[in-house]
Amino acid sequence: MKKKIKKKVTSTPIELGGSNFLKGSAKEYWRDHYSHSQADSNCGRKLWYRYLDPRKIPSPSNVHMMVGNAVEAGVNHLLRKRMGAGMEGITCVMAINEQMKKEEDKWKKNGWEIDQEVFEELWKETPKILEVVEKYESLIDYQPVEMQKKLWIELPDLDLPVEGYIDIVAQRTGPFGPEPVIIDIKSSAKKKAVTNGWKMQLALYALGIQRETTANVLPTVEIHLLVRLKTRTDIYIEKLQLEASDYAQAYMRLKDLQWRIDKGYFPANREGWWCSPKWCNYYDTCHSEYGAEDNTLLGLNL
Ligand code: SF4
Hints:
The protein is of the alpha/beta class. Helix content is 39%, strand content 20%.
């Protein structure tokens, strides 16, 4: 495992000016790594609020992610049992409830504003979560090797390593013996098509595993989507066929992120579904601080 690079902060805090460029160096303040989610961000201003704003505005995880984390906790519980590492006396429903409680406590401890009714609605999801996790168990055709595997990937021409967490590293027996598989668990209240962002995430993780193991082949990558509909639950196993161009794109997105950090370029992007109070924790702050004239191309001197 490579050591993290510690970045030293030496000058006065940076500020976002009237344009989309920072006054000061973003590079100096960026954390000690890049990540897929940073490269996947659809709004530069959001990145700035999250990583660079000297006010350190709290960034609570989206409350709806609480259910997704509980689904993962249930799946991990089952997989740990398969690996002979299950905890005595702990059932799947207990693991799910414990995760829900942890998430709720995290919100309360941090003093994040939350409507109690929303929590109550989320807690009502617990039986559905158990149902979908148990259905998933009946479809497991692999041997889990490691869960929440941390990756620290160094790629050419990037100043910082890329950090990532793989949900499940597994093996499945193929015609020539055990084959490595990387699995990402997604959960949702409706069926979703595989997004380009998911592909990029897994392409990056496959590269990371290949570099770590120095294997000649890239591992197989899969999305396992656990869906909780109102009247039933469904599982979709998506085996992704990644091309060389996907790996190249995953890498180039990180180069693009590095360019934006080097230049201190963090434009607002209010044009999509992501720019809503539901999906952006900075919505109120951003809308009170920046007007519509602060568009994406302002100040870009190409
Ligand atoms: S409110 Fe919209 S423009 Fe502002 S940070 Fe959030 S997503 Fe970006």
